[in-house]
Amino acid sequence: MFKNLRSRWKVTGLQLLFVIATFALGGSLCGYIGRKLLDLFNIEKAVVWVIMYVVIITTLWPLCVVAVSIPLGQFSFFKNYLKRIFSRLSGGNKTMPEDKKINVAIFASGAGSNALAVIKHFSDNKNILVKVIITNNAAAGVIAIAKNAAIIYEIINPKNNNSQSYLEVLKKYKIDFILLAGYLKMIPANVIKAYPKKIINIHPALLPAYGGIGMYGMRVHDAVVAAKERESGITIHKVDEIYDNGEIIFQEKFELSANETADTLAAKIHLLEHKWYGKVAEEAIYKIHNLV
Ligand code: GRF
Question: Which of 87, 91, 108, 203 is packed most tightly, with the most Cβ within 10 A?
């Protein structure tokens, strides 16, 4: 159950403790104030009392929880949590028409297992559509994934790695957000400029360690194992003009086992990537588009 909550709310184990404590303390505070307020009206504990209690509690609860969340350092979590609840109650959760959805492009050069996980994650999303897969590699496994999922794909000529060829494709499909999933070409600066904070990448190690030019795929895991690191993990970060350098928005790590090899490490990393990339990407997309 705690694992599910952690993954649903995207919090660490420690933060989950604080969040639960906030719910508990906020709830008790709300109940206490509710009863005190009702005492002022001197109403007998009967049906009217219960109805009024429920009304007061429902109104007070968000305030109490937010008040408690501040000293417990959970204000930002509860601000978003309450936003989501209010949006649902006010019908903000309706499915957008297809032409109004936020269009996402996935860039991939290889097997595309992350692309597949992201496609699955967004398959029934009401607001986000994986519109196109972009690759520089005509032999990439991700092309078969695009075909199976009935998603359009475009091959950018690797010799033509200039901003114009990208911007044309991105314009053609009205792309709002870009997810890099094992894309091995440098994204031209003009594309980054055209998508401020709207391009994110997943990296199979704990950046800033084991990142930069030449650090991709098995090379990363070989280096981590060779250095006898005690832990590794994944990083999801915004993309800027420097390889693996942009602001980190998410990391998840684990301890390496005593007999870890680059292959076993790669398999563990892939599982973690598939678990998190869609969720973290969804949150980043919602945030930049001011959706909850
Ligand atoms: C992933 O490990 C990702 O972190 C990195 O490239 C790899 C792509 O793997 N950027 P796949 O093609 O998604 O299987």
Answer: 108
Ligand 1: atom nearest CA of 269 is 2
Q: Is the CB of 202 under 6 A from ligand 1?
A: yes
Angle at 220 between CA 9 and CA 272, to 5 degrees: 25
Out of 89, 117, 145, pick the residue that ends a domain.
Answer: 89
The residue type at 172: K
pTM: 0.74
Contacts of 36 by beta carbon, 8 Å cutoff, 6+ apart? none
**Running along the chain, 292 residues long, what does each successive block of 10 average in pLDDT?**
73 88 93 86 77 88 93 90 80 68 97 97 94 96 96 90 90 97 94 96 98 94 97 97 93 96 97 97 92 71
- Closest Cα to atom 8 of ligand 1: 182
Distance 273 CA to ligand 1 centre (A): 8
In which domain, by residue range, is 77 found? 2-89
- 238 and 262 together in one domain: yes
State whether the beta carbon of 211 lies less than 6 angstroms from ligand 1: no
Task: Count the domains in the chain.
Answer: 2
Which of these three, 89, 111, 137, is where a domain ends?
A: 89
Which three-class secondary structure state does DSSP give residue 57? helix
Ligand 1 atom nearest 203 alpha carbon: 4
State whether the beta carbon of 143 lies less than 6 angstroms from ligand 1: no
113 in contact with ligand 1, CB cutoff 6 A: yes
Whether residue 203 lies in the annotated active site: yes
Do 56 and 131 reside in the same domain of the chain? no
- The percent helix, strand, coil of the chain (3-state, each to 5) is 50, 15, 35
